Amino acid sequence: MTQEQNQPESSNAGAKPHRGIYLLPNLFTTAALFSGFYAVVASMQSNFESAAIAVFVAMVLDGLDGRVARMTNTSSKFGAEYDSLADMVSFGVAPSLVAFNWVLDDIGKFGWCAAFIYVAGAALRLARFNTQIGSVDKRYFIGLPSPAAAAAVAGLVWAATEFEVDGSGYAYFIAIYVALAGVLMVSNVLYYSFKDVDFKGKVPFLILAGIALLFAVISISPPLFLWLLFLVYAASGPVLWVLRKARR
Predict the structure, then answer these.
(1) What pTM does this model have?
(2) N vs C: which end of the chain shows fewer Cβ within 10 Å?
């Protein structure tokens, strides 16, 4: 995430303070916003494969803008707000409309109700996340992160399109699936954030070999295995919650 640069006032009382925004990190945020917008437009034209891929591209760009801001010391409040609004489009509105234009529109009110639950869940998730920054354990997210929820929905559309699966026969199940993704975003279920992983430190050789194997498996069928990857992550929160309850 990035933030607005507000330069201090000059010693001259009559001079106006210089205000501006950092260009580089906000370029990534704008690109992520464009990807989300493109996903909506592509789904309206029944180009669901491109729409789903655009959501994944937005995920990559969203992950880069914050890192670029921290690496270049260009974090600002403006960038943080801009990033949150872009996330709402790319990971809130776009996935729900892609799913709606794909099959949910066929089942009427039940379909658009499920799509709205997802959008509302994403909005509430982002609002809660912004208010909890710095006050919660950074090792965990409270609720399913909106990019992961978007990947779980867009991945399903991408995989079904890739394997020519007619989703209309499963429209009610897909509607429940989309709504559940929205509910998980506003739940109190904990998800591992991977923020405590030291990417600069040393790791055992087997971990690196495992990562290489993961990339190889994903390359076999990116639509299928990316969807399964984020589906497993989405399910990990409730599964771990049940295990914690059982231990208690």
Answers:
(1) 0.86
(2) C
Q: Which residue has the tokens 């001259």?
A: 12
Q: Which helix (H) or strand (E) holds 141?
A: strand 140-142
Architecture in CATH of 18-247: Up-down Bundle (1.20)
**CA atoms of 215 and 222, how far apart (whole Å):** 9
Q: What is the pLDDT of residues 169-212, one digit of tens each?
A: 999 999 999 999 999 999 999 998 887 676 677 778 888 899 89
What are the tokens at 200?
Answer: 């600069």
Which long-range contacts link 108-114 to residues 24+ away (Cβ below 8 Å)?
Answer: 110/172, 110/175, 111/171, 111/175, 113/175, 113/179, 114/175, 114/176, 114/178, 114/179, 114/182
**Nearest to 237, CA basis, from 123, 125, 80:** 125
